[in-house]
Structures are given as structure tokens and as C-alpha cells.
Amino acid sequence: MDTVTSYTRFPTVRIRELKDDYIKFELKDTDPSIANALRRIMIAEVPTLAIDLVEIETNSSVLNDEFLSHRLGLIPLKSERAMEMRLSRDCDACDGDGSCMYCSVEFTLNVKCTSDQTLDVTSHDLISSDPSVVPVDNNLAQDINGFDAPEARGILIVKLRRGQELKLRAIARKGIGKDHAKWSPAATVAFQFEPEIHINEALMESLSLEEKKEWVDSCPTKVFEVDPQTQQVVVVDAEAYTYDEEILKKAEAMGKTGLVDIISRDDSFIFTVESTGAIQASQMFINAIEILKTKLDAVRLSFDTEEADDQFGELGAHMRGGGM
Amino acid sequence: MVAETKPSILETESKANIRKVKFEESCKADGDLKYADPRVAFEKELYGGKHLEVPLRSTVDKFALLPAFLKVKGLVKQHIDSFNYLINCEIKKIIHAKANEKITSDVDPNFYLKFTDIFVGKPCVEQDYIVEDITPHQCRLRDMTYAAPISVDVEYTRGKEIVVRKGKDGQGALVIGRMPLMLRSSRCVLYGKNEAELAKLGECPLDPGGYFVVKGTEKVILIQEQLSKNRIIIDTDSHGNVAASVTSSTHERKSKTNLAVKHEKIYLRHNTFGDDIPIVIVLKAMGVENDQEIVQMVGRDPKYAGILAPSMQECVSLSIYSQQQALEYLGSKVKSSRNMWVKAKRSKVDEARDILANVVLAHVPVIQYDFRNKCIYIAVMIRRMLEAMLNSEAVDDKDYVGNKRLELAGQLLALLFEDCFKRMNGELKKHVDITLSKANRSTQFDIAKCMRPDFLTSGLEHAISSGNWTVKRFRMDRKGVTQVVSRLSFIAALGHMTRITSQFEKTRKVSGPRALQPSQWGMLCPCDTPEGEACGLVKNLALMTHVTTDEDEGPIIALCTTLGVEDLSMLSGEELHAGSTFIVFFNGTILGVHRRPLRFADHLRKLRRAGKIGEFVSLHVHSGQRCIYIASDGGRVCRPLVIADKGVSRVKEHHMKELKDGFRTFEDFLREGLVEFLDVNEENNCLIALYEADATPATTHIEIEPFTILGVCAGLIPYPHHNQSPRNTYQCAMGKQAMGNIAYNQLSRMDTLLYMLVYPQRPLLTTKSIELVGYDKLGAGQNASVAVMSYSGYDIEDAIVMNKSSLDRGFGRCIVVKKYSTSLKKYQNRTADRIVAPQMIATGKNNIMAVASRCQLQDQDGIAAVGEMIRPGDIYVNKQSPINTRDDVPNPMAMKDSAYKPTPQTYKGPPGECAVVDKVLLTSNDENHFMIKALIRHTRRPEIGDKFSSRHGQKGVCGTIVQQEDFPFSEKGVCPDLIMNPHGFPSRMTVGKMIELLGGKAGVMSGKFHYGSAFGEPSGHADTVHAISNTLIRNGFSYSGKDFIYSGITGHPLQAYVFMGPIYYQKLKHMVLDKMHARARGPRVVLTRQPTEGRSREGGLRLGEMERDCLIAYGASMMILERLMISSDQFQIQVCTVCGLLGHYNHNLKMSYCSSCKNGASIATMKLPYACKLLFQELQSMNICPRLTLSEA
Questions:
Q1: Which of B283, B291, B490, B666 is spaced 20 to 30 Å from B910 by Cα?
Q2: What sequence ranges are listed for the domain DNA-directed RNA polymerase RpoA/D/Rpb3-type (chain A) (predicted)?
Q3: Which structural domains are found in chain B, ordered by start?
């Protein structure tokens, strides 16, 4: 057992872009399994709050009760508190009727259209019992023309016409994306393997300027450029490369196989994470790491025995601390 | 240029082929006459008569004509036109017909009743003597018939005086019945209404109309296809002999006349004659006693005369020379008619003459026994037969669309109406005779008071609601003429209106009528036909097809005479076929001959284009038969085409601009002779170019848009011209099963079954047809992001893998709404059903609750409350019925509770699922029956086994549902909604689907809808793959539509690029929830004690014969015993070993006993299937004695 080499690596994260609902970062010195685990957790296991129970008192709108409930459920709610909250099935402080502060948040909606104009019922009309849990508001304020941007008007639930009324009580609960997509905080989580591009300078120089331009243009995305001064082909944006191999095919067609060498590095990943707004994209990533850690802890604790070591073989030692 | 003379054609040529060549020359000459276009003349001058390779002309985008056409003609205009014709013209013709106009009495010769006029009024209903206007939607909801009163003006005698009763304001004086109205016909309240007005009437503006609402159900009268009436059809019988047949049809009579060849002689075959009649005798009986004239009439050409000789000889051998002899011969062959005893007996000769005049070839009029026209008609028939004997190409094709007529709602209803009207008149006459024959009447007899309107009303209503068309007069007895409009999807309803059924038997295995006919180009959709037994027999109209209605014959006949058609009576037999003369047929009868056929045709066409005669009059010069056929009859299919002069389209850029700016309508195009309607026969005289660029100087017409050869259903398919043909056919069938939106008024309708999609979408890849029919407004599907790859193994055999998150977000979610209705019956003893509140208990201060859990969804009125959950077994109407419904009850309005028995209406739905009460309607119909209709709504998300399909006939069930994190993703973050297995492509060859994916992807990226209209690439109505690829490249995608994908499970890139993009997917109505079924124990049939059959009865799963065979072969005898007896209907019986009959077990004596031996000594017990015991007893009841002989095993 002592001879087992260490698997420990020290991954680094370098943030490239950071917005409230968007983050782009590099994850280096780790392997695809870790990167993918993080991606999967962000999609399916980072908890958020979403409306889960709807009690409809009056609904004279055109949409039926189930339809409305479904729409309500999909409205993202600000869920910073979600990590501390309890899942309602694990909550022993309540019986799940929504009056429990540990596991649920109550919303009410009471709208009636009295004018001749169509009334849009939006997520703004949802009144929350907890000021920290409110529908996501992409407050882009006003657009250039001074009108409300469509996003600023909230998420449309239903349109009411004169005389129609909607009155309901909704209970938001904590949950994870695995159970229902409404609890998933991720709009998009994707990563790519970082490409490494090596241009065979010698071979490249054998091309004329036209040929270089032709070759550069054959790439559907803007990866290469011909430097106007030096007339050399340079890599401007390696990550724009989509592994389409067009450029390799082109080189082959030009009879210059091996003009460029592209390898995808499997220890370096570029993540793009977009959040629904329920939690900040950066927080989502941090939560994901947190959850991954607890999950690994669970594995480690439950199998911290000799049998478990046998069961997992080399990995058993690894899980307990990389054989150190 | 050749002058107007046609030198060659005037010379009589004996050899047909020479004539043909010459004829073509004359065609050219005739064509040159039209060389009046100044532009062509200019070109000629400019280029010295030489043509350029490509003539100077700009191609005009004629697409805008299509919406203009559909605006005036609509998709179901043929139905509406034909119905309008019925209620505005035909109905008047019917009552003015000689046989119908007057009712007289056999008793009082002075009595008469005359119908002077007839009107169909506005839709209304009379209730408690109050006349109220009705709308179609009211009728649908209240189970009423959308009908209008038929009223008549009459003139009749009352005692000595003559009473004239006239109504006013388009209303007659007397109501004689009610006519079910076609929606959007000229009498319908929806006629000419705009969108807002339609919405107010509760009607969907996209609904095309063209159907009826009878007793609350929407019924469409299918278009019936049949062989054309009154036309000579040359055919070969099973022995290969040539035969000519004519189905004559007039208002009075329908008869079929056959000419057949037997032993090289020609015979007339008609069902009024018991035997075949030699044709020469028939001609002689008609007054052509001269053999020479007969030969001349048929044609003097020796090749014809030669074949005719045996027939002539036979006549001589029967020694028939004169008309009298011939008539006597015919008289002897007449079948004795059944109602001979009614009329005074006439002589055989008179009878034969009458039959010849009125029954044989009934459509050729014989006035005062002048048989001249009929003789010539027969001669022409013979000539055509002889021609077909010499040249097999002259045999007619029965499947040719030009030989077909489509019978529409108007025509069918006209038949029915006339029949009912005649029957009503008969009844009236009977009534009159009875009343007038009574000696002393207290009051004066007024026939107006005896009219019973329900005779016509129920006759029409019943026929439409049952679909049984029985017209005894014509021995017509058709079933399934009407169908309930399929409201499964918007397209299903629309497709139903354009459907055509054939009268052919479905069981017969003939390929001819089922095959695709080249002549159906542009008229009938080549794709849309069902699979299976009705394949090819049920067809659909193409997008631009119009079906004609009857047109007045008089003016056209007069015009033909003016244009130089020589009357038959002025011609000898010789002149009939002489030289260049062509015989002119008009609607199947011979009008005369014309010496300059092409000039005549040209003139008539010019008159038509100028609007002087109806636009649907067709003219067709048949050079082979040397005939001109003019047709103005109803039921011909035709379509509009752009007229071209010498290959130059008459529709120019400025016309289209005017159309776009609203200064011009489709009618203007017609009136100005830029566009005309051509029927199938006339198309034979034309050279139609598909595109303007393809036109040559010989081109006479140019297609408006090539994609109009497809129908409504096939129009939904993007790039259908890239697909393998059967795939388009499959899609046509599946588009009708797709859920989506049905109509704008779908939520206010009360359909028995309604499937709706929660989030229906408009297809990303559309076609022009989609926009024209409104599928973009009432879609039936969703744009799914599809990855074409293999995943998980649950995608074999066309199964698809679905993304769970997509389903969570609403993909494929649907609402199933089912109607449950009940009515409160009234019984003869004046008792009635009632609804009572369920028994309640108080559960709180202000709360009460029903005691029974299955009544808890009810309000206090005993009817389910809207918005409540409903589970199988729940009672939605707490109804009670009186126990005694026969005998008189003292106070039927206030009976004791004990006089009622509960008859609760329970909801039966899928077990374990709970639905919601969507809507409850309390109403009564026009007969004051109180009704309760409840809609039960069930929202479903897709589950494993639900059926989906793209628009390319690629159906598949959901194989598995996978979490989003396990789904593959691209580095852009795109994750598909569903995964389709690539094995679906190679054998199906649905290239259109691939292009749809590409186009959809490009559409998403560029933010616009791409088009994929059929054959649309040259005209720009379909984006080319090349253009799409460029768009993809511009947006940073691969031109091929393939993406670099990572596995969601491992995070590693996949080995191959994956073809990924949006495809419009339809959710089909077949769902697992409605079909799944299993049973361990359950109900049994009372009679046989075997398990019940079928899912609806919670039946058992049958171990069938083939399964049994397997078990026998395997030798699993105990298994067979267990499956077929123990688990089914095992029964223990007592058998008397002495007599072998069944005994019984007496429980009092505690012993078995044989009742036939009167002895309980030797009884054995054994087990057998109850069905077997039943068989023994049934046999015994038939006096067959089955005895069991038992032996120890």
C-alpha cells in the first residue's frame, strides 16, 4: 500500500468573466471526470427554491389550474437561502403546509382585471412572505426608448381580460434539479477541453499569402489570422476552435498535412456557466464544489473500513486521503 | 404565314394516319392565327424571325395569386358552392319539375295544389311558438340541428275558390320542412362575416365551414367519386371483347345502356330487355330501315363496314326489314314489368317504342318519337367500339380523372330532397284523396293546414346524421356518406373537408382504381391517401382544385349554334363523318357537327376568357375521335392556370403589383382572361409549362405554383420532394393524429374527446401551404432540438430518448378533455329523472362535506363542481330515476324519495390517475330535454411508450427518459430535447427531415423562419441547402449541421460529430395511459363464465390458438390445462356413469343425483370448462343428446 503513488492534484480555477448570472472560468490540473462531476452537480444537485404547491382560490383566466401551476413552478426564485434550508420531506418542524420557515416560503397572487386592456399577470404580482425569496428580477430597468424592457416587466404568467380574476396561494420549497428541472439553477453549464494549437512554421512558410488567407478563411470560427505586418499565420483565439477539423481537412486538401497540430488538453477545461438568476453563477459553482465535497465525505465516511478498502481496491486508499 | 385556309383538311382522306399528319399541320396553321401578340411580332421583326435561345421575358412571381385564390374560393369552396347552388337554384328546379310541381286528386278533378316558388330561409329554431335565430355554436352545445325553414309559395283550390298564397322578403307562405344548413353557405349566419364578428358568434375564423351541425354533431358529407354520367365509355370485358357503356342520368330516370360484342356481332344490352338485342334491329326500330344509312352513320370506311357486316347479316337472317318488324321483335324481348296490372295494357310494340324513347339512353331526348338523335348517338357508340376493336388504344381508361365526376353535398342533398319532397307530395295526395272522398265534411278542406313539415325535416336530418342515403327511385342505397368531422387536430378537420371517397368496393383486389393516375396532377393530392384497404380509393383534393357545379345549358347551346354547329337533323349519315367535320358533344349529347373544329374551339375559348360564358365551361378537342367535347356539368375537377400566348405569360409584373396593392382580385384575373380554369379533359389540349422560364412558343399555359399539386395535409411537410414518396403518405395520415390546437374556440367547445398540447408551437421550418391554411396559427407540434445519435440502447426500432428536463419544462405536455354527458329523461307517466344533493355532514363552522367520498366533488346541487379533482368511480351527477315509469302516478311532480332509485353517473377514467372537472354545461335542446355535459380534463406529461412523430412519416415511441445531466451537450451549452437513432434514416430515405433540421438550425441562428415548400427551390419558396449551409457557417456552425458533442455521463468528447438541430415533432394521440392493461383476476362473462374480453371490460389476456400450438408442440400439457381451463372457466359437474348425462348435487340430501335415471348410485364428479357444460346443455335443448362415457385414467 505504501508504494501507491499519489493521485492528488491541485486544481486551479482562473476566472475570466464574472457577471451576476454568468461566469466563465478555466479549471486546470484536473481530469474530465471532475469537470463533468461539477457540471452535473450544477445542473442537477445545487438546491434552489421553486413553487411546488399551488392552492387556487379563483381562476377565471383562460389557462387552467394545472397549466398555471406548471408555469408558476418554472419561475426562478432568488434562492440564496436554499443551501441552509431544509428539504420539506426532511423537515421535522412542520407538516409541509407552508407555514414553516425552515423549509418553505409562501407566496400569494391576487389579480383582477378591471380595465378594457389586457392585463399581464407577471412574476411581479407574486407577493412573497419572505423578502429574501422573491421571483428573479432581471432588472434591466428601461431600454433606450424609455419603455420598459420586456424583461423588466417580469415573467409573464397569464394574460387577463376584463372581469377575469386570479387568486392563489403558492408554497415554494427547496429542491434539486434531479427531481424537477424547475429546481435547477443552471440555464447552461458547458465546458470544453482547451485546445492547444501548434503551427508548423516551416511548412506554413511554404504557403503563399493567398494560400494562407484561403487556409485561414476555411475555418468556420475565427481561430487564425494572417498578421498584416509579418504575413505570418498566428493563433488569435484558440478557444474559438470547435474541433470541427475543417482546418485539418483544408490543409490535407492543400497537400500540407501536418500544417497545424491541434490537441485537446484533457486536464484543462473552460467552463461557461449561466444561471437562471436563482443564485449567482459564481455561488452556483461554489455550492457545487460544496456538494461534491459532502458527497465524497459521505462515501468516505460510510466506507471507512477495511472491507470498503477491499471493495474499492486502490481507490479505497485514495478516498481516504490518497494513501498518505 | 399560312392564311386562314386549311387546304389539306378539306380533302377527304381514307387513311387515318395521313389524316393525322395533315391534322397536325392544320393545328399549326390554326395556331399561327393567334399570332396577334404585338410583342411576338416585334420580336420577329427585331431578330428577323429567329428566336433567341432564351426569349426575353422576366419571370413573374405568381405566388400572390394563391392567397388571392384561396380568399375567394377557400379550401372548401367546392362544398359551399355546391350547397349554395342547391338552395338557390336546384331546389327551385326540383319543385318546378313537371312531376313535382302539382298535386292533383283522383277524386276531385278540380282540386290542385301548385308550388309556385320555394325558399330556404335564415337559420332559426321554433321553441314554444317563439322563433329564435340560432348560431352554429349554439347548436353544437345544445345538441340541436343547424337548419333553416324551407317555405313555399302555393296556389291551390279550397272548395270552389283558388287560393294564392305568397310570402314576402325571401320567405314563402308555408313552411314545409327544415333544411340542415352548411356552415358558411350563403344562408348561414357566418356568411361574409369578418374575424371579429365570427368571434362574437363563438366561431373560429380559421374553421373553413362546409359541414353540417346535426343534433349537435358536426357532419361532413364526403365527396363521392364516380364514373361520369351520360358519357360513352369504351371498355373491354373479361373475354377481351370491346363494350361500350353509357350511364344515363336525368332527373326522372337513371339507366345503364351497354353495347357488347358477342360472336363478332354487336348487341344492345339493357335491363328492360330480357335478352341481348342485335344492334341493327334497335336502329331499325328507331326508324333507320335503310342498311346503307346505318353504314353511313357508323362510317363508310370499309374497315368499319367489314366488322359491321355480321351484325347486318343477323338482322337479315331474322328477316327483320321494317321498323314495325323490329319493334315487334323488341316487344317480344321486353321484360314484363311488375306494375303492368296498374296501367291499361298496351301493345308490345308501343311498349318497346316507349322504352326505346325514354329508357334506353335516357339522356338523349326523343321528342315526339323522333329517334334521329338517338340513332346517331348509337351509331357514334358503334363507331367508337369498332375503332377500339381495330386499335386497342382507343379503349377508354375508366380510372382517368377526366372520366370521373365528383358528387358533392349539394348534389347528394338534392337527390334526397327530391325524394323526400316526392314522398311528401304522395302522402299529401293520399290525404287529399281520403278527405275529399268523404261525403259530407263539416269544414271546407284546406290543404295548407295538412302540410306536415316534419316529413322533410326528419328525412334530411336522419340521412345526414346516419349517413345512409336511400333513394328508392334510383335504387340508391349508400352507407357512410357522411362522417363526423374529425376534430383531433385542425388539419384533421381541414383534411376531412377535402376527402373524396370512391364508390368502388374496398374488398376487391384491383389495382387500377387505386393506382396513382397521371391525370390527377394538380387536381388530387398524390400523397394523401390512407394505407390499407382504402388505399387509393380515398383521395384528397389538391390545394387549388375547384369542383364545378351545374351550369345553364341553354345559352351555351344557342351560342354553339351561332358559332356554326350544324344541327343533326339537317345532316345525312354520310355527312356525319365526312371530311373535316368534327362531332360536337355537349354534356354527353350530340349537338351537331362543325366543319372547322379548331376555329370553333378557339372562338369558344376566347368567349370564355372574355367572360361571356361561364368560366368553368370546358372545351376539349379530341382529334383521335374527331370530336369536340363541351362540358358545363357539375362535378368536374378543375384548377386555375395562367394563360400564355406563345409561351409568354399574360400575367405581368404590374398585374401582380396591383394585386399586392389591393387594386385587383383573383376575379379580375379571371375576368380579364389572364387566368382560366381548366378541367382534366381540356388540359389535354394544352401544353402547360411548370415555370415561366421553361415555356416554349408552343406553351399555352403556365402553372401558378407547382406545390399546389399537393393537398392540405401534404402541404405541411417541409421539403416533401426530397422524401421517399411513401413517407409523405405516412405523414399525411399522422398529421391527422397530432395534437395541438384545434380551433380558436376550442375551450368553448364541448367535444367528446379533445386532445390539446399545452405549449403548441409554430414550425420553425414552414412552407407556403402552412401559411395559407393557417397551420402556423393552430400548430400541432413543437420544435424539438434533436440529436441524431445512438444513446443507451433504449432507442432501437425508432424509439426516441427524451430529456427529462425538457419534459419538466413542458415539452410534449398535453391536455386530454373528455365529455361525459347525461340527460334527465321524462317518462310516459309524466315522471322524470331528478338530481339530488348528496348527503352532507357539517365538518366545521361553515363547512359541510358529502358523506360518501365519491360524492365529495359535488356541489350542493348534486353536480360535480368545476375545478374539483375527480377520480375513477366518482359520481359527477347524482341522478335518481323513478322506479315506476309506466303506470300512472298520482302526483308525478312531488313523489316520495322512496319512489326513486339512484342512477348515479360515475366517471370512468384511467385507474390511479386523477383528473379535474373542467366545465359543466346545463342546457336543454330544442325538444326541451334537459342535459348536463361535464368536461373532465386530464393533463399528461409524456411517458415511456407515448408516440411521437416528425413531419416525415418517422414515428417512434418514447423509449426512455433520461436526466438532463446525462444528456450529451455541446460546448455552446446546447443540450438536445430528444435523441433519435440514426438507423431511422438509411432505409427511410427521408432527406427532407435532414434538410428540415439544417433549415431549422439556421432559422434559430438567424432569427427567421425558413421555408421548405414542395418544389420551391427554383421559385424561392424553399431555401436551398447551400444557402442554409452558408447561414450556418456565418453563425459559427459546421456547414453540415453536425456538432462536436461531449458525453454527459463521462464528460469526454464523443467519437463522432453529431447531426443536431431543431425538428418539428408532433405528439400523436396514441398514449400508453389509454392502452395499458393487465389483469390477474377480474370480471367474467355471465353466459360462459370465461374472462371478459377487451381493455374496456378489464378483460383477460388471451392465450390464443397460436400460443396454444406452441404449448402443444412443446408438450406442456399441464400448462395448457392450467391456461385453458383452470384459470379460465373450470367447473365441477356430476356425470351419471350409467346414462352419461349430467346429474346434479342435491344439497339437502348431501348426495349426487342423476335426474334422468332417478338414481344417485353411480355418479362421478369431474372438472371441465363451463363452456363445455354449456354446450352439452345447449345441444340437449336442440334435441341432441350428448352422453359422456367415462373411463378411469
A1: B490
A2: 22-302
A3: 65-71+544-709 (3.90.1070.20), 74-219+407-540 (3.90.1100.10), 233-395 (3.90.1110.10), 714-813+944-1067 (2.40.270.10), 819-938 (2.40.50.150), 1095-1181 (3.90.1800.10)
